[in-house]
Every structure is written in structure tokens, then in C-alpha cells.
Amino acid sequence: LLVSTMAVPLVMLGVFFAGNSFGVFFTVVVPVVNEMYGRKEFGVIMGGQLACQAIASIGISMELLPSVYRAAAHRHKICLGADCFRLSFLSLAVLNVVALLAAIVLERRNRTSLPVDRLDCN
């Protein structure tokens, strides 16, 4: 949402937050997956996760965002500025909210069947 304003200081702040969130995600996800699912299935789970992220990023960057941009730019002969990109940034924000809601739903559904609970030795 910060990036959709197209003001340079807010864009830089949005890029800073996005970079930190991706850096933290990739730093934390490896030990979390290892602790939750163990070493036996670690490669399969991480490979599946990274493949899904690659497929999603290609779909978003090559299909979704260009079509949103073309729809916004269709009104202008030459499209410059925030009017052309705002809808693209807002669609990414909506995707993030949908992903957050899906993560919350999955966490609640799987709360009682986490592998860590099954591996408890007490």
C-alpha cells in the first residue's frame, strides 16, 4: 500500500519493508520446516515450497500484473505515473491479504495435528 502512493519516500519505505519481510521469511522458513517435519521429508517439502513460489511469481509477474496494467493504461495513449501502477500495487496487496487469511485458516485447521505434537517424547 505504501508503494501505491508513488511518492518516492513512501516507495522506498515500502521496498524496505518488502525486502525485510522476504529476507526474514527465507531465513526463518528453513529451520521451521526442519523442526516441524524432520530431516526425512525436508528436501521434498522445501523443493515443493520453492517450486510453488517460483510458479506463483511467474504467474503474478507475467500474467496478472501486466493484464492489470494494460487495463489501467488502456484509457491513456501514454501512461505515466501513479494512475498506471496503483491498481497493480493494490492487487498485490489484495493477494497478500488473501494469503494471510489462507494461512490463518490452515493454521486453525491443523492446530491439533502438527508433526511436532506427534513427535513429543514425554
Automatic annotation (TrEMBL):
<feature type="transmembrane region" description="Helical">
    <location>
        <begin position="6"/>
        <end position="30"/>
    </location>
</feature>
<keyword id="KW-0472">Membrane</keyword>
<keyword id="KW-0812">Transmembrane</keyword>
<dbReference type="InterPro" id="IPR036259">
    <property type="entry name" value="MFS_trans_sf"/>
</dbReference>
<keyword id="KW-1133">Transmembrane helix</keyword>
<feature type="transmembrane region" description="Helical">
    <location>
        <begin position="85"/>
        <end position="106"/>
    </location>
</feature>
<dbReference type="GO" id="GO:0016020">
    <property type="term" value="C:membrane"/>
</dbReference>
<protein>
    <recommendedName>
        <fullName>Major facilitator superfamily (MFS) profile domain-containing protein</fullName>
    </recommendedName>
</protein>
